[in-house]
Amino acid sequence: MKKFIENCPKVELHLHIEGTLEPEMMFALAQRNHLALPYKTIREVEDAYHFTNLQSFLDIYYQGANVLQTEQDFYDLMWAYLNKASEQNVRHAEIFFDPQTHTGRGISFETVINGLSHAKQDAQHKLGVSSALIMCFLRHLSPEAAQKALDEARPFRELIFGVGLDSSEMDRPPVLFKDVFHRAMDEGYIPVAHAGEEGPAEYVWEAIDLLDVKRIDHGVRSIDDPNLVDFLVKNQIPLTVCPLSNIKLHVFEDMAEHNIKQLLDLGVCVTINSDDPAYFGGYMNENFLATQAGLNLSKEDLYKISLNAIQASFLGEQEKAQLKSALEEYFNE
Ligand code: HPA
Ligand code: ZN
C-alpha cells in the first residue's frame, strides 16, 4: 500500500505556501537576511511545534514567516514546495498565500507575487507540475484590511486565480467578509473559504450562502448538521480536508476518530491535502498514508478521494479528463 500511495498521481487543493517553510530553510533565510530567530537548533524548533489548537499554531507560523524578505526568498520557498510535490507525484496544486502577513511587515505585494509566480512558471516548464495561486484574507484582521489587500492585488490580477479566507476562525464569521468577497468575485476571482475547522457548521452555511464559495477548506464540522451534509452531497460542494493538520491542532485526537471516511461514505466530495506540511508532519504522501492506516481505507476509497480532487480542482475540462484517465489507468494496472 505504501508504494501504491506514493506512486499514485495526486492533486493538492489546500496548501499554504508559508506553511511549507521547513526549519532548515528558516535557518538559511534568517542567516541570509541577517535576522535573529528564537531557536538555536532544529531540535528547538521541533520542540516548539507542539500545538494545542489553531491559534497556538498560527502564532508560531506567523513568526516563522518573518524570515521571508526578498523576491528570491519567496521563489525559493515556492520552488522547494513544487519540487517536493513533483517527487510525490502531485501533478497539480492550488496554493494559498497570505499577502497581509507580508505587507503588514513592510514587504511589498509585488515582491511576494513575483517570487511565487516565477517559481510557478519554472515548475510548469521544468517539472511538469501545474499550479494556481489563491490569495487569502486574514480573518483575524478587519474587512477593511482585506479590501486593501484586494486593491493591492489589482495590478497582478492575472497572476492570481482565487481568493480565500484563513487564520483564526472562532468568533470571526464569514459574514464579516461578505462585501470584500463580492468585490473580488466582480473582479473575476474564484472564491473559497476555510470554514468548519474549529468553527461551527453554521460558518460553513455562511461561507456558501453569503460568500458564494466553490469549495470549503476543512469543513469537517459539517457533520454536526445533517441538512448541511445533505446540501454538500446534492450540490457536490467539495471539502479540502487536511487529516494530519486536524490531528496536530486537536480537531480530532486520533486518526481513527477522523470523520473523512464517514463523510466519504455519505457521498460528500472529500479530498486529502497537507495544509501546512512543514508544521504538521507531512506532505501529500504522508497525509494519504496516515489516513489510510488510521481509517483502514480501501483502494476504492483512495480512488474516489483522488477522483474527487481532480473534479474539485479549478482545472479546465480537458486537463481534468487527462488526469482522470491517468488515475483510472493507475488503479487498473
Ligand atoms: N486554518 C486557518 N488558517 C490557516 C491554516 C489553517 O489550517 N493554515 C494556515 N493558515
Ligand atoms: Zn488551511
Structural class: alpha/beta
Q: Number of domains in the coordinates?
A: 1
Quick one: CATH class?
Alpha Beta
**How would you name the CATH homologous superfamily?**
Metal-dependent hydrolases
Approximate shape: globular
SSE pattern = HEHHHHEHHEHEHEEHEHEHHEHHHH
Summarize it.
By secondary structure, the chain is α/β, with parallel strands linked by helices. It has helices at 2-7, 23-32, 42-48, 54-64, 71-87, 99-103, 109-126, 143-153, 178-186, 201-211, 226-235, 243-248, 260-266, 277-280, 284-295, 299-312, 317-332; strands spanning 10-16, 90-97, 130-138, 162-166, 190-191, 193-195, 216-218, 239-241, 270-272.
What does this structure look like?
The chain has one domain: Metal-dependent hydrolases (TIM Barrel, Alpha-Beta Barrel), CATH 3.20.20. Helix 9 links the parallel strand 4 and strand 5. It has 333 residues and is an alpha/beta fold. Helix 5 runs parallel beside helix 7 and helix 16 runs antiparallel to helix 17. The chain binds hypoxanthine and zinc ion. The site of hypoxanthine (HPA) has 10 residues, from loops.
List the helices and strands and how they pair.
Elements: H1 2-7, E1 10-16, H2 23-32, H3 42-48, H4 54-64, H5 71-87, E2 90-97, H6 99-103, H7 109-126, E3 130-138, H8 143-153, E4 162-166, H9 178-186, E5 190-191, E6 193-195, H10 201-211, E7 216-218, H11 226-235, E8 239-241, H12 243-248, H13 260-266, E9 270-272, H14 277-280, H15 284-295, H16 299-312, H17 317-332
Parallel strand pairs: 1-2, 2-3, 3-4, 4-5, 6-7, 7-8, 8-9
Helix pairs in contact: 5-7, 16-17
The structure holds hypoxanthine and zinc ion.
